[in-house]
Amino acid sequence: MDDAERRVIRRWKPIIAEHVVVTSELVQSLKECGLLTDDKMRQIIQVGDNESTKTSRLIDVVLSSPLDGAFATLCFVLSRDYGWIARDMDTDARVEKGDIVIDEDVLREAGMLVHRKFGSSKRFCETDKKDMQELLALKLQVSREEWQRENEKLQAALNVSRATVATREARAKKLVRALAGFVKENSDHLTTHAHGMITTSDSLKKSLEDVHKDGLGRLEGALDELLKRFNTVLTHRQMLHQERDKCLKMMEVKDERMPLDAALRGFLQTKRPLEDDLQSLARDLSEKDAAFKRMTTKIFDLESELNEKDDIIESLTAQLGAPPP
């Protein structure tokens, strides 16, 4: 740490003592950066001391540190929670070292401001006016450089955002092309011939061909349609699972993971003896039914013969009972 940096720290010591709170995290960060030792940490944090005393003791320890770059380390640690203090201290150090070069236009602008305000005033001599011009020019130059740094940061962040947006747009367009290819390749599977219904294929094509949306918007529309269709598929899948469970229960299958076709084959093999008995019973019933039909036919024939015999008997009886001629 050079003399200019020490002068800046001493000048900023009251402000730091007023605003900075010495916490264990702050002290630990300074230790990790090599600015404090364990003995110095215990010396700074003592029970009963108020915050102003702790901060003042911390500044004294930093001022006595032999570490190269102690000033930059202190500004770095303070920038995490006290960015404005770290930024202004760094600017003051640059001014103290004479590292800030004042631009000609800034110096002229400062001179114009001083002349406009105090040009005809007799209270200040020319030397005082020149000092005010230099001081004002220095402040303007510092403000300009800070604005330029912030502008560069914002420009870099903007470029990153633009690159991110471009990358996302490219990825979205790639996904749109992939989805369009999927629709084209699976057109038969995505199309239903139900009358009056919008098919999955038509719905996806409509979402992908919307010229009023960018790639991401079209992709979002297509994904919304896919999610709706998937929701329907999942609902039907759940219904099929429930029907499958009912079938397994009816077939008295204990293993719920068994495929339905395997369970059905096992069920048919288990019930085959009953099927054979039923077929045998059906054959017996068929034979008995045929015999019954034959017997019925014979009965009809016998009844016909009996009727004929009755007619003959009646005829003979009539002849026997008739008087002789």
Automatic annotation (TrEMBL):
Segments crossing the lipid bilayer: none
SUPFAM superfamilies: DEATH domain
PROSITE patterns recorded: CARD
Entry coiled-coil feature ranges: 137-164
Annotated keywords: Coiled coil
Record has Transmembrane as a keyword: no
BP terms from Gene Ontology: regulation of apoptotic process
Domain of life: Eukaryota
Ranges where the CARD domain occurs: 1-62
UniProt protein name: CARD domain-containing protein
